[in-house]
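Hey forum,

I'm writing up a methods section and want to include a predicted complex as supplementary material. The small molecule is fe (ii) ion. I've pasted the protein sequence and the SMILES. Can someone with a working setup run it? I'll credit the forum in the acknowledgements.
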Amino acid sequence: MIVKEIKKNVYGIMVNDWDRRLFDELIPLPDGTTYNAYFIKDKKNVLIDTADPRKTEKFMGIIKEISGGKIDYIISHHAEQDHSGSIPAVLSAFPAAKIITGEKGAVLLNKLLLTAEDRVLTIKYEDEINIGERTLKFYSTPWVHWPETIITYSPQDRVLFTCDLFGTHLATSNFYSSDYKVYSAAKRYYAEIMMPFRNHIRKHLDLIEGLDIEIIAPSHGLAHSNPEFIINAYRDWTADNVKNEVVVPYVSMHGSIDRMVDYFTDALIKREIAVKPFNLTVTDTGELAMALVDAATLVLGTPAVLGGPHPSALYATYLFKILRPKTRFASVIGSFGWGSNMLKIITDMLPSEIGIIEPVIVNGYPRQEDFNSLEKLADNILNKHRELK
Ligand SMILES: Cc1cc2nc3c(=O)[nH]c(=O)nc-3n(C[C@H](O)[C@H](O)[C@H](O)COP(=O)(O)O)c2cc1C
Ligand SMILES: [Fe+2]
Ligand SMILES: [Fe+2]
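Reply by user p_vandermeer:
Happy to help. Structure tokens for the complex are below, copy them as they are.
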């Protein structure tokens, strides 16, 4: 746990969850995470977000101490329980406290946490509230990564509280990021959580760039005392341009796909195309998501299993579909024994705007003619990538 006065009377409260290894029962957390809340002491005392229910007891211990027994407002940026989950405990310990949130946030908090409606003050977007020496401004930033999300700006402090946006899943004993350490964790977090909403995020970046900000204070991981660094990284990741990279998620039961992917990887390297193969049996999906942030092309490698693709390949295809990376092209490397519908099942699942490059589907173990087809696939990809420039 870290409690840090980031500005006079503005405290960051970072509750570490060092050994959490999975988020939303989906996202691997190799480095744990933190739940960050913030506390502003002014004429009105304001708590910004809370902590995951796993850490309520610890969180409440800090809050009782830091608040001096007085909380007027609890700003809830996001109704997901990792930030809102300790709100019921705060409400019962501080009977005068009211939640401040947007209209959609109010509905979700009521549904998810059963919060009483008379404890909620609903703000209009672009609203502001004077709390004494400060006037806090609220902005609507829908879809980072839920529909109700808002952010809070304190112009007097030049601090922007962004909740999930610009977060990192990284348990840490530092409060501020050092750029080289945070980049990879922030990219992974973006890939897993924010990537499906990059068009929304681009608009929010325009808004944020118009504010005078010294500190970006998110609700996971490190805070950013160099806001430009993380904003520029998000600009890059959300931009439409793709890189000369191919991501190859694959699975192989008896070695045919293994052999083809190995050959194909070398064929791409020979053409100076960056390639990242991911053996799905041992892949951390966060790494795969991260590789998809910039890659121009996806090539799935799968054997036929019981009439369709291998379930691991289907899972990877589904993940690709819901993460909505900016990837432009896709193809398949397949191997079958007697016949299957795997190609159609995969291509039907891919987003319609993806350009399909002629797949290489082999009967059994690959022979010379199949390696020739893989060379052709690599050439086709090279040509498509050249057209992008
Ligand atoms: C459990 C299992 C189920 C299979 N189901 C099918 C199938 O439905 N259709 C088919 O054409 N081949 C099927 N096969 C054959 C494989 O797709 C074929 O052997 C392929 O070459 C395996 O590729 P790999 O060596 O990369 O695992 C199946 C193989 C296994 C082990
Ligand atoms: Fe969230
Ligand atoms: Fe979160």
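Some notes you might quote in the supplement: The domain at 243-384 is CATH 3.40.50.360 (Rossmann fold). The longest helix spans residues 368-388.
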